[in-house]
Please model this.
Amino acid sequence: MRDFDGLNVVVTGGTGALGTALVSLLLERGAHCHVPAIDDADAGRWSLAKNAGVTVRAGFDLSNETDVERFYAALPGLWASIHVAGGYAGGPILDTTPVTARKMLSTNAMSAFLCCREAVRRMRSGGEADGPPAGGRIVNVAAKPAIVPAGGVSAYAMSKAAVAALTLSLAEELREEAIWVNAVVPSTMDTPANRAGMPNADHGKWPKVAEVAETIAFLASPTNGSTRGALVPVYGRT
Model:
């Protein structure tokens, strides 16, 4: 299946576990992936950094307006922007400081907002003459605690709820331009970091990153002709 042939796709958080699975899948399907990295070390240790279908650029803080503008302004014609980058912090609310809460809002919500804004700007401006078709696709990554109550994750849930609300609002704003905006809503994913942090959990019930990547790829694909404004659960058996 080569539904992304010749299309440019941004994947923030592309150097992480889910991002790597997603970029690998998109490359198989013909996309050219543009990945922002925090620094040279982050870019240098990524297994896909030297793939011919990948452009990875270092030195971007996705919660910083200037950095995000600079990253998107240099892109060729843009078809899809997928926002995997984010962070996690848990704990009871009395142990959660305003510094932690602001960090969650910055890392998760503000980064998604800025990337969505610049993706829309780039999709509207077009690119090369043989660039992408009209419209585009934006996919955010929310989280199960944003829509299903869970204790001990107030700051994280708040920030991801903002991502979900952003997704629904933008889906309505952009519908007449055929820019479909959706989000996946994963539960705890099966990654090495999550296994290390929760060694006694039933890891077999967690959704696999490859499975979540498949759902994201559908939402971002030109073959998605009508799905917009969706918060798609990817819970596995949790």
Notes: The chain has a mean pLDDT of 96. Helices lie at 17-28, 40-44, 65-73, 98-125, 144-147, 154-173, 192-197, 209-220.
